Amino acid sequence: MHTVVVGTSGTTAEDVIAVARQGARVELSEAAVQALSAAREIVDALAAKPEPVYGVSTGFGALASRHISPGLRAQLQRNIVRSHAAGMGPHVEREVVRALMFLRLKTLASGHTGVRPEVAQTMADVLNAGITPVVHEYGSLGCSGDLAPLSHCALTLMGEGDAEGPDGVVRPAAELLAAHGIAPVELREKEGLALLNGTDGMLGMLVMALADLEALYTSADITAALSLEALLGTDRVLAPELHAIRPHPGQGVSAANMLRVLAGSGLTGHHQDAAPRVQDAYSVRCAPQVNGAGRDTLAHGRLVADRELASAVDNPVVLHAGTSTGAGSGEGRVESNGNFHGAPVAYVLDFLAIAAADLGSITERRTDRLLDKNRSHGLPPFLAEDAGVDSGLMIAQYTQAALVSEMKRLAAPASVDSIPSSAMQEDHVSMGWSAARKLRTSVTALARIVAVELYAATRAVELRAAEGLTPGPASLAAIEALRAAGVQGPGPDRFLSPDLAACDAFVREGKLVAAVEAVTGPLD
């Protein structure tokens, strides 16, 4: 099995996906172990001094002015985990929790948190054992990090609370640790706090959403091209020289993708036939502009994610004297800071939800056009075999419209909200976790919306072929792959739900892109 080595300088999106979704093992590098030990020396030295140090010998948040005696500090660290594990609601998905834990481990390994190497190793062991802490939907305000979700993960390291085993069964964490030979950690100064203070949950969901949306934008370029083809539109609007004079990168990529999908089609260019059109409707003609603007938003999201993946997010943080010269000597300091604030991540999560909603909206408009006999340029009403006796895809478009409406509601930004907490000490929060949760719902909805357009567009292309027109090779490849996947054409004696669900899986699993790329070569 693939192993991801966690070092001192951050991680990559590919590594997050490997651990979260593919179950990759994790391993601490020797440099990370050394950095952990060096930072711990600094914390131990400060803990031995009589002066209070935030996070080491004081309370937290609004209680930071309370100096804690040495005999109570271990209890303090246990108690902060227990008291902060106050999440409620449904269990968060396994992949999200694994990403959350892996990204917290990434920050621990940076050598800026002050935890002992054995704490980081225990987190790696839990990940490698396939143990997934039970984390709840609600509890994070995205400031001071994802406190409640991370606290539920820290409980598992302590052998407390519930967790899901590799078999998917939820059991007491202590039982699962014992079954895998993992000793619960006994937290010391700074360690409980260090396990809780990070943007790891929202960042993990951002990384996975970016991966999913990148694939969906390519799928949407394909379905937009198929709809243009089925509507007998013109591909002249996709000419590279037109997009070169408005040089938004994403727009050029989407136009090039669509043009390659349409290569060799005998359906395009009929807009001047029996019912001549000067130009196609916006939902067809402006597909590269809308899809491309979303692609550019993805590019900004990747930039922010990459910066955050390279960050050490904690409060307080351990800083070595000078640069690395204090490592191993116990020299350095612990400083309070605001790097845990989730605003940079929260903003892009909201931006992505807006772009995804608009992509869903324009996609639905093309589907509606395919089904309307007054605008489809010769296709039967609702693409039905016998309109009136058969409603065709009428209600499939209803389902698509309901999903679009949901996405529009989810596009309302979470990051503009802030509810003060901790007795007004934390008086401005990011709501980044909430932004991430709603984006996950939007991504799922968008895949279904694209799947409905694919179903309608391929049906329409088949009807054009029955008229004697010649679809392009990419369209035929998509149709053939759909049929091979068990997605059948509509009929008056069949109900559509299983086919639409199978079409959704066909899109989400990358089969549409793979089928088309077998003809076109790699799409961007």
From TrEMBL:
<dbReference type="InterPro" id="IPR024083">
    <property type="entry name" value="Fumarase/histidase_N"/>
</dbReference>
<dbReference type="InterPro" id="IPR022313">
    <property type="entry name" value="Phe/His_NH3-lyase_AS"/>
</dbReference>
<dbReference type="Pfam" id="PF00221">
    <property type="entry name" value="Lyase_aromatic"/>
</dbReference>
<comment type="pathway">
    <text>Amino-acid degradation; L-histidine degradation into L-glutamate; N-formimidoyl-L-glutamate from L-histidine: step 1/3.</text>
</comment>
<feature type="modified residue" description="2,3-didehydroalanine (Ser)">
    <location>
        <position position="144"/>
    </location>
</feature>
<comment type="similarity">
    <text>Belongs to the PAL/histidase family.</text>
</comment>
<protein>
    <recommendedName>
        <fullName>Histidine ammonia-lyase</fullName>
        <ecNumber>4.3.1.3</ecNumber>
    </recommendedName>
</protein>
<dbReference type="InterPro" id="IPR001106">
    <property type="entry name" value="Aromatic_Lyase"/>
</dbReference>
<dbReference type="GO" id="GO:0004397">
    <property type="term" value="F:histidine ammonia-lyase activity"/>
</dbReference>
<dbReference type="InterPro" id="IPR008948">
    <property type="entry name" value="L-Aspartase-like"/>
</dbReference>
<keyword id="KW-0369">Histidine metabolism</keyword>
<keyword id="KW-0963">Cytoplasm</keyword>
<dbReference type="InterPro" id="IPR005921">
    <property type="entry name" value="HutH"/>
</dbReference>
<feature type="cross-link" description="5-imidazolinone (Ala-Gly)">
    <location>
        <begin position="143"/>
        <end position="145"/>
    </location>
</feature>
<keyword id="KW-0456">Lyase</keyword>
